[in-house]
Amino acid sequence: MRRTVHISSPPQEPMQMKEEMKREEVEEKKEIVAKALPFYKLLSYADALDWSLMALGTLGSIVHGMAQPIGYLLLGKALNAFGDNLNDTDAMVKAIKKVVPFVWYMAFATFPAGILEVECWMYASERQLARLRLAFLRAVLSQEIGAFDPDLTSGKIIDGISNHMSIIQDAIGEKLGHFLSSFATFLSGILIAAICCWEVALLALLVVPLILAIGATYTTKMNTITAAKMLFQSEATCMVEQTIPQIKTVYAFVGESFAIKSFSECMDKQFLLSKGEALLKGVGTGMFQTVSFCSWALIVWVGAIVVTAKRASGGDIIAAVMSILFGAM
Q1: Residue pLDDT, tens place only, 136-164
Q2: How many C-beta atoms surround the C-beta of residue 115 within 10 A?
């Protein structure tokens, strides 16, 4: 009698285990990304001219950032001029004429400040980036020949020269100037709010840290996810650049399926990160808007009580609220 031997097929790997493995790899990439250099290393290749340009750009950023709260202060003064002289047109015109020259002064001051902010920071970033690219190329060429096989692939080198350098240029040329401008807006907004109505300013200082915490957490998480996505994109680019030039060898050794599988795995990891990024964007934006509008409602309600008690005018309350809340955003 013949015996029938049933050979059971090996159990297939569950999809959950694959998802967990991908998530573990994503977390490992995030841990690698989290190890960043100190901030002062960003300006390591700046010379005396670059520091002078950045000093002028800082001055322009501060003046440009202070313009918005000062504009709200002038708006409050104009509203007070309208509200206090509803029955006297001549007095209203005289009060408005006292405010209008300061608006012109602010306009004339912000024009050169904006030019200094953009031009100086951009020019300084271009000069530093040229030296940084040259230093990067020298560092690559000074490596031992064995480092080019496992670590320094052509995809990583091209990605470092193009994408990473563009991020550094964006950080020096735009982000630093924008940060200084926003910081000046925030500080001047607090000062103007305290001058207009200290009660509203004190209440806003209790609410603003929550807005800042949400914004800081959102930005940190988004930067981590973006950096991890760039790592996976670099791996996928490296795979393509290694496969296409050697396509005959790949076909000869039947390696096209392996190349497709490796590329698909990188894309799947990017897809997992994209899902987390979409969820984070939705939750972060919703929380930010919710806290902002609730803060608006609370501060305006307190401002109405202060105006009713005749401890401040309506224009001062509007200037205080807009200065401190828009400065925090």
Answers
A1: 778 777 766 665 655 556 556 666 666 67
A2: 12
Can you tell me whether residue 95 is helix, strand or coil? helix
Q: How far apart are CA 234 and CA 31, in angstroms?
A: 17
Contact 28, 81 (CB under 8 A): no
154: how many CB neighbours lie within 10 A of its CB?
13
Nearest of 178, 179, 185 to residue 322 by alpha carbon: 185
Q: How far apart are CA 246 and CA 252, in angstroms?
A: 10
Give the CA-trace dihedral at 319, 321, 327, 329, to 10 degrees: -140
Q: Measured between alpha carbons, how far is 152 from 160 in angstroms, rounded to an integer?
A: 10
In this prediction, residue 277 carries a pLDDT of 79
Lowest mean pLDDT among 7-21, 36-50, 52-66, 231-245: 7-21
Q: What pLDDT score was predicted for residue 34?
A: 46
pLDDT recorded at residue 157? 64
Residue 319 CA to residue 326 CA, distance in Å, equals 11
Identify which of 96, 103, 101, 95 has the alpha carbon closest to the alpha carbon of residue 71.
103
Q: How far apart are the first and last CA of the chain?
A: 84
What CA–CA distance (Å, rounded) separates 124 from 51? 8
Amino acid identity, position 269: K
pLDDT in tens, 181-225: 888 888 888 888 888 888 877 877 777 778 778 878 888 888 787
Residues 6+ apart with CB under 8 A from 31: none
Q: Which residues contact 33 (CB under 8 A, 6 or more apart)?
A: 224, 227, 228, 231
Residue 101, CB-side half-sphere exposure with 13 Å CA sphere: 4
What's the angle, vertex CA 13, arms to CA 10 and CA 17, rounded to 5? 155
316 closest CA partner among 106, 74, 103: 74
Quote the CA–CA distance of 206 and 213 in Å, as a whole number. Answer: 12
